[in-house]
Amino acid sequence: MQSTRVTFPDGSLTGEGDVLTVDRERAVVVVDATPFHPVDHTWPDQPGDSGTITVSDVVLDVSEAVMAAVSDEGELAVGTDIPVKRGADGWTWLVGHRVDGEIPGSVVAGASARLEVDAARRAGLSRGHTACHLASLALDAALADLWRKEIGVDPLGHPDFEGRANQTSFIHPDGSVDEYRLGKSLRKAGFDSEGFAASLAQREERINELLGGWIASGGESRIDVEGPGISDRRTWRCALPEGEVGFLCGGTHVRSLAEFASIAVSLDLSDPQLLVMTTTAVPA
Fold first, then answer.
1. Which site among 28, 121, 163, 249 is 20 to 30 Å from 137 CA-CA?
2. Is there a single domain that holds both residue 185 and residue 231?
3. 100 and 223 share one domain
4. Cα-flanking dihedrals φ and ψ of residue 232, to 5°?
5. What is the CATH number of the domain that holds 18?
6. Angle separating helix axes 119-142 and 200-217, nearest 10 degrees
7. pTM for this model (two decimals)
8. Is 181 found in the same domain as 104?
9. Do the Cβ atoms of 62 and 51 come closer than 8 Å?
10. d(Cα 126, Cα 11) in Å, to the nearest integer?
11. 89 and 192 co-located in one domain
């Protein structure tokens, strides 16, 4: 069995493929090629696509695309039941399509399938994911002067607060919610947590100022791929006034920052040990 070929990195919403396997107990259909973006089982920040799979005259409603994998011994694992990280040796990596309801007996391995992604939901999630990345870069920039020690830097050359402190990220249509742990280890790394708390409103204002300038630039946003398989590395790249940024990312994104009317964040430090950043995007 070959790894599922995916076309979502180029923005595809429809495609055709052959059914590889049907797991009726878990209501999952695996196809050899798909435009569906699956939720990652190890870092589930972006939900999987929804839509339909049509086999002959049977239309299956896909509630969410998920990662799946087959071991060299033939064991199929789906979603959070996968015991290893994506790309691990000894496994073939696939995209599973969770189906609402029972899968009819006519849907079998080898059947031809037509796949269609919910375009509106995909567009909203893509805006949410791009906005999430831009907000994290703006956050790093706005907090750069709070570091007393040198640490690793982000793609714009600022101290990588995002990489050091982020503990959860959840992307939804036209936005995201990120949580950052402001604990003892971050202070030991040189971060001035007290100075941050005292200047929270000014930091939020600076982030939104940066985001406004970036959106106004209307720069290109794209996904570069190393291969067609679901386990091949993908890199998000975006043109900003400061230069092009890029980092590894398995999700979907807008094609241009002109697709946004605005992106804004709010910072919540109700718990002094936990920063919650809520990002809201408004489509153009």
1. 121
2. yes
3. no
4. -75, 145
5. 2.40.30.130
6. 130
7. 0.96
8. no
9. yes
10. 10
11. no
- Asked if 245 and 140 count as a contact pair (C-beta separation under 8 A), the reply is no
Q: How many domains does the chain have?
A: 2
pLDDT tens per residue across all 284 residues of the chain: 789 999 999 999 999 999 999 999 999 999 999 999 999 999 999 999 999 999 999 999 999 999 999 999 999 999 999 999 887 889 999 999 999 999 999 999 999 999 999 999 999 999 999 999 999 999 999 999 999 999 999 999 999 999 999 999 999 999 999 999 999 999 999 999 999 999 999 999 999 999 999 999 999 999 999 999 999 999 999 999 999 999 999 999 999 999 999 999 999 999 999 999 999 999 99
Range of the domain at 238: 121-283
The answer to whether residues 106 and 160 belong to one domain is no
Of 101, 117, 133, which closes a domain?
117
Q: In what order do the strands lie in the sheet with 175-181?
A: 166-172, 175-181, 274-283, 260-271
Question: What span, in angstroms and rounded, lies between the C-alpha atoms of 18 and 25?
Answer: 20
| Helices within 82-199 (DSSP H only) | 119-142, 161-165, 184-188, 193-198
Looking at the fold, whether 222 and 260 belong to one and the same domain comes out as yes
d(CA 208, CA 47) in angstroms, rounded, equals 26
